[in-house]
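Holo prediction. Input below; ligand is pyridoxal-5'-phosphate.
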Amino acid sequence: MPVSNFNKLLEQELERLDKGGVSKRHERVVERYEDGRAIIDGKKVLVFNSNDYLGLRFHEKVKAGEHAASDAFGTGPGAVRFIAGTMKVHQELETALAKFHEKEAAMVFSSAFAANMAVLHCLLKGQAKDSLVHKESIIISDQLNHRSIIDGIRVAGFPKEKKKIFNHLDLDELKKVLEESVGQAKRVIVVTDGIFSMLGEAQDIGKIQEIVDQFQDKFEEGVITVVDDSHGVGCYGPSGKGCEEATNGNCDLIVGTLGKGFGVDGGYIVGSKIIIDYLREAAATYIYSNPVAPGTAGAALAAVNLMMSDEGKQILATLNENIAYLKKGLADAGFEMAAPSEHPIQPLLVGDPLKSKALTEELFANGILVTPINYPVVPSGKDEIRVQVSAAHSTADIDEFIEKVTAAAKKIGLL
Ligand SMILES: Cc1ncc(COP(=O)(O)O)c(C=O)c1O
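Structure of the complex:
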């Protein structure tokens, strides 16, 4: 009886979410892909909401990397690395990631979410009971950081006064918070998204470093900068290294995903050898959770190597041309954007949840897949359509999108 009561409560909760129009479980089913388009409900649709910014998911070299690794190592890792032994392909992937980001070392996790869950906890205080890493630290976080950063801080179980937030992208405020923190801790962790996923805005890592450098000597164990650039790695900056490269920064640690620009799956962290060595001893989501499958590691290795080659540079150049072409097309059609963005995420401002839903549905009826982003993910009145362009889109694809979104916007009274 008690469990049936709980089930009833869950039913009511699901109904509440459905009625509020915010439920997420009614996912569209992609039957397959054909000529770069998704087949949904038997219909071919042009996808403008994927994080596969470089179109690497279907790249022959990436698929070949996956097949070669699963032929050599099997379909799964068998166990966590310190138990079953590390597979060479995971090591090769880590070496390639460190080289790509020009850092000393790298470490692969099952996802970027898993990386944030462990890394922040470990830097704030050791995860083991007898750890020498004490908790005399403070964390300073951008107001709009990703959920995995927020949860990573939460699991550390820190008191409120040690968790500080600066206004979104407001680096003068970051400086003020650092000033106020002097004398309150031995160590400070500054954490931010690189590219912010809802608006495509970029954090200025160079400027953060400039500010942080003024405070290094004011804390006994310094200030450590952690940038989660999951949307930036592979696809943003002159050679795709992300916001650090784009803003001439030099942060201590970059958290990245292999599941967006690199077109595969999994997460990683790059930084100094000493921090990575420590994380292999302490990070719970590394020690108690399997790594990505060897085939996935092989695909990711091929993708990272590709982005360091001339072919990768050409793909990146195509992406940048597509971003510029899309931006111009949307501006010429009279659309307003929710934020300025040079990233494949172009946030088309709608400003009303019902209109953003209507626009999305009208577009789907006309063979275009995009996602509406509404409150509370964005502030009320800033409802948007998150348009995401890829290097795999042709000019004709972008023309088709602009033509259809313009017609749909006129139909619902947005333009
Ligand atoms: C900033 C940021 N961090 C982490 C993640 C999670 O990445 P993964 O899918 O590898 O867990 C995302 C993806 O939504 C993200 O946008």
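The pocket of pyridoxal-5'-phosphate is lined by residues 111-113, 146, 148, 193, 197, 228, 230-231, 257, 259, 267 (CB under 6 Å). That is the main takeaway for now.
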